[in-house]
Structure formats: C-alpha cells, structure tokens
Design brief:
The protein has 355 residues and is of the alpha/beta class. 43% of the residues lie in helices and 19% in strands.
C-alpha cells in the first residue's frame, strides 16, 4: 500500500526523512526541504513529530494535489514572480481598450454561447427561442442552435455546445467552445457574442451567486517556461469588450476570469490567481476570447459563481457546485434576462463606461 512506500523502515509512522526519501525516489528532487517540512507540519495534526496512518490522507493530498511537485512548477512560479504578471495585465488592458468593434452600431444580432442549456431554459421560454436545425447544420453540428427575438428589437441566437455521442455529455472546455466561437463569427456575424454559464469563484473576491462580467480572460494551465515572454503568451487568453456602464447599471461585478479544464487547483494556479487578481474560473472563456479577438467580434463573458475555488480539493469544489446548483440556476436566469433586456435599443458603445 502507498503508506508503506513512505514508511520505509516499517515503524508504523512517517518521518520528515521518510518523506524526503520517497520524493527523491520518484524523481521529485525539485521540492526543497522547506516545502517538505511545511507539508509535514500541516499533516501532523497531533504534533508528535511523525505522520500516522490516520493523518496520511491529508499528507497525500498535500503532495499530489496542492504541492509544488516538479522543477517545472517551481520555475513557473519564479517566472510569475518576476513582475507579478504586471506586463500581462497591461497587455490585456491595452487589448481591451481597442476590443470594441463598431461602437456606434445599434445592437441587432446577439449570439449566446452556453454549455448547459438547462441553466437558462426559463429565459429561452420567456423569449420564445426555438430550435433552428438549418443553422445547426451550417455550424457543422458543433453546437445546437436556437433562435428568437428579444421583443422584436434584436435577434438572439443561442448556441449550446454539442453533446458527445460516445459519452452523452456536453463538450465543455477549450476546443469545442473555440470552434463554436469561430463558426459563430463567420456564419452568424453577430454584433455581440456572450459566453454565459457558471464558474468557480475565488472566495476573497466573490461569493456564490455573484455575477461576474469578465474584464479579460487568461489560461491557468497553458504556461511555458522558456522565457518570461513565452510564459505570458501562454497565459494570455484575450480581452473582452468594455462594458462598464452595463456593469454599473445592473449592479454586476467585473474582474479577470481564469480558465482551466479540470477541478484541480494547484499551488502554481493559486499563485497565478493571486498575482492576476482573478475573480472566477471557468472552462471556456479564454479560448473564446482568443478566437473572437482575432475575428474582431465584440465579446462579453458573463459568469454566475456556482461554487468556491478550493486549492487542492477538487472534490469539495464539485460538491459545492451540486449544493448550490438549484439556487445558482435561478439566479443565472434572472441575471441573463436582465442583461438581454438591457441590450434593447443600445449601441455597442453604450455598454461601455459613459464618457
């Protein structure tokens, strides 16, 4: 059993030296003595100087879920520390300043990209949004298309990412959403694309039920280590259009969004979250921002916080999502309805901060 791999002398407990020997034995020399000691002290709940079997689970979680395990991870943190990610934040701000296309144009076509349609079903019912098989075919069935009108003022197209025929689950994550965003820009040519859904919230910034409008989007698990420039390039997702006036009028929150494709938040992720001041984490917005930046399509990321972000404890994050799912779905429907109503008779530029 795994406990015995640590307890090399078979005395029924694990010492700091046992930990060092184990990590060296599986090639984790990048973890320094200070980090090993910190993990040991945190796991040693009865403070007797050794780890017994009943304390072992926490130790394993520290090592494999919430620890700096490799030299590459240490290097990533060191690169991020060089300027606290200030240059990347500046580049995102500069990109956002020019991210608005056709500010004087009245909003006539809005495209909403979602993963879970059920979260917004009351809104679809309210505005009589119906399936559009022809558009679905035009989009190569990468998404199921629904169309309707917001009180006859502008057209709304809802694109739900396709479902896997093999596993029967929605294609969440980078690849599908970026493909759908590209197809939407080409086929629908909307005045505005909104990425809508739920996200994990960073507890010091937001609470469950808050709605966050992304001020920009970054990748948390696409980092490079050859140079600071390549590191920033990997993290950089893309800007969102300025919409400060809408945020103010509707009482929403605004902040940077991070993206990763699983529920595990490591110390490297945590360090990036802190450096960048992220508000929430989803699985799609950065890839959508990256594509729509290139197509010069107005893009807004609108996320309702469904759970907390708990480093090293993905199971807790999933459980938190399930716990709040019903309440968050109701809140999401209200927020989305308010936003869609707000867009009526607005120009693109009117969503931004008033001059």
């Amino acid at each position: 059993m795994l406990f015995d791999r640590f307890d090399s002398n078979r005395d029924g407990s694990i010492s700091v030296q046992d930990m060092c020997d184990f990590m060296a034995g599986i090639g984790l020399e990048g973890v320094n003595d200070g980090q090993i000691t910190d993990m040991f002290v945190e796991a040693d709940k009865n403070q007797n100087g050794s780890i017994e079997f009943d304390e072992f689970e926490h130790l394993v979680r520290q090592i494999f879920s919430d620890s700096i395990m490799t030299y590459s991870d240490i290097l990533k943190m060191d690169i991020a520390k060089l300027d606290g990610m200030a240059e990347l934040k500046n580049r995102l701000a500069e990109a956002r300043a020019t991210a608005m296309a056709n500010p004087g144009k009245k909003i006539e076509r809005v495209c909403l990209i979602v993963v879970v349609k059920e979260e917004i079903q009351p809104v679809l019912d309210k505005f009589n949004v119906a399936p559009d098989p022809a558009l679905t075919a035009d989009l190569l069935s990468l998404a199921t298309a629904y169309r309707g009108s917001i009180d006859g003022v502008y057209d709304l197209t809802v694109l739900q990412v396709a479902t896997s025929e093999v596993y029967g689950r929605h294609y969440s994550g980078y690849t599908q959403s970026s493909a759908v965003a590209a197809m939407a820009a080409k086929v629908i040519q909307p005045d505005l694309v909104i990425s809508f859904g739920t996200a994990g919230g960073w507890p010091s910034k937001v609470q469950v039920g808050d709605c966050v409008v992304g001020s920009g989007c970054v990748f948390l698990d696409r980092s490079r280590t050859s140079s600071k420039n390549s590191f920033d390039w990997g993290v950089f997702g893309g800007p969102t259009m300025p919409c400060g006036q809408m945020v103010k009028d509707l009482g929403l929150r605004e902040g940077l969004l991070g993206v990763q494709i699983n529920y595990t938040v490591t110390k490297v992720h945590t360090h990036l979250i802190d450096c960048l001041g992220l508000y929430a984490i989803d699985m799609e917005s950065a890839s959508e921002a990256q594509i729509l930046m290139q197509t010069k399509t107005n893009f807004m990321a609108l996320k309702v916080v469904s759970n907390g972000v708990f480093p090293g404890d993905g199971a807790r994050m999933e459980a938190d999502y399930v716990k709040h799912k019903e309440m968050v779905s109701k809140k999401a429907a209200v927020v989305l309805s308010d936003v869609l109503e707000y867009l009526k008779n607005k120009t693109v530029g009117q969503l931004a901060e008033a001059a």
